[in-house]
Amino acid sequence: MSRKYFGTDGVRGKANEGSMAPEAVMRVGMAAGQLHRRGGHRHRVVVGKDTRLSGYMIEQALTAGFLSAGMDVFLFGPVPTPAVAMLTKSMRADLGVMISASHNPFYDNGIKIFGPDGYKLSDDMEQKIEELIDNPSQLRLAPSEQVGRAKRIQDAGARYIEFAKRTYTADTPLDGLRIVIDTANGAAYNSAPPALWELGAEIITMGDTPNGININEKCGSTHPEAMCQRVRETRADIGIALDGDADRVIIADENGKVIDGDQIMALIATSWAKRGVLKGGGLVTTIMSNLGLERYIQSQGLTLARTKVGDRYVVEHMRQHGFNIGGEQSGHIVMSDYATTGDGLLAALQVLAEVVRQKKPVSEVCNLFTPLPQILQNVKFKGGKPLDDVKVISAIKDAESQLGKSGRLVIRPSGTEPLIRVMAEGQDESVVRKIVAELCGVISKAAA
Fold it and tell me: What is the per-residue pLDDT across 241-266, written as a single tens digit (0 to 9) for each?
């Protein structure tokens, strides 16, 4: 059964409209709360958010829904998504909720829900929540004497900072390292910089003045150009760019060159293998990761497993098959020894620890393989199924034939935005660019 509200990363949409309107958000809280009332104890849900203007509205609507379902609500304010996941389990909550649309613009928002184990809800549970949302007559409000209470938790960010610092594994601190840290005017603006500073680094901050509407605006992991420029200007040793909810990271070396999630995963996996702490014999990533990563990992005697796009599917495979590292090219890096979801700061700390151990520049430590030319382009569409168009199907077959066995083609609808993503990679960049351009043209016509 197709899902109406939940996508690949929770509920997401334009704030104050549709599934992100206050009444709809309140029903999400009511439904999720009802389904997670187990036993006679006082039930609790922890709620964090990023810095979007609409976060205030959605926080209050969700709180009303959970309280009416008889759950006590603990409000964190702005904290990273991985902090919510960690604190859900740490505080023995029945649910954890992050209010964020991740890397999307400020006018979007979303709801990510974590179970008591700190992992995102299963597809089955999300389906049950949707069924309750669409059938309000089945929603059961708590009796008057069992309505929940709400409370602000002031030290959530400090708890996360201490947790993050404990994952830094090098024997020596970050003394002498100059780090540019771009927090995307998002959820980590008041946690990532102090964590790095307390570990000994000299920090240069940017994207740390949120005003409600500048989250992800020409900054952060989806727009790393400004961070790369600042690295060059300040002669920093490394740049770290997080996204709006800080569950992904992109690195820049000392020359201001971008290092994506594929290179980060390659570094952590091989480092862990040498130290004897890698589990599963390799790593898990998605169909979007570069073939260069796959070939490099295999050359190191390790394995690489691929899943559908979405960190939730990476995590599911990791849990089922005993891996302890996985992630996405976009910078979602999941290290299950430490966290249940992607954590940009923790991944950056693993990179920094390896830089300290090797005592080499970031450009030498982090560039482990040469990626194959890979081109990704998005096509906007308003509705329908353009990928079912006969001309589109024919164009895809022709493109696959041109790429042959030495390349790959991935075409998929985005799970979070009204876009069709077209990705191709192969040995010849000019051929890859031509294929992507032609495919996008055909899909655009079908989507018109």
Answer: 999 999 999 999 999 999 999 999 99
Compute CA distances 300 → 14, 216, 295, whole Å: 45, 36, 9
Model confidence at 419, pLDDT cuts 50, 70, 90, reads: confident
Mean pLDDT of 372-389: 86
Hey, do 159-259 and 261-342 end up sharing a CATH topology, with the first three levels equal? Answer: yes
Domain spans of the chain?
6-154, 159-259, 261-342, 374-447
* CA–CA separation, 154 and 306 (whole Å): 40
Active-site hit among 54, 68, 100, 102 = 102
pLDDT digits (tens, 9 = 90+) for 230-239: 999 999 999 9
pTM: 0.90
Under CATH, to which class is 6-154 assigned? alpha beta
Q: Is 102 a catalytic residue?
A: yes
Specify the higher pLDDT residue, 427 or 152: 152
**Residues 6+ away with beta carbon under 8 Å from 395:** 438, 439, 442, 443
- Mention the CATH class of domain 261-342: alpha beta
Tell me the fold of 374-447: TATA-Binding Protein (3.30.310)
Q: For domain 159-259, which architecture applies?
A: 3-Layer(aba) Sandwich (3.40)
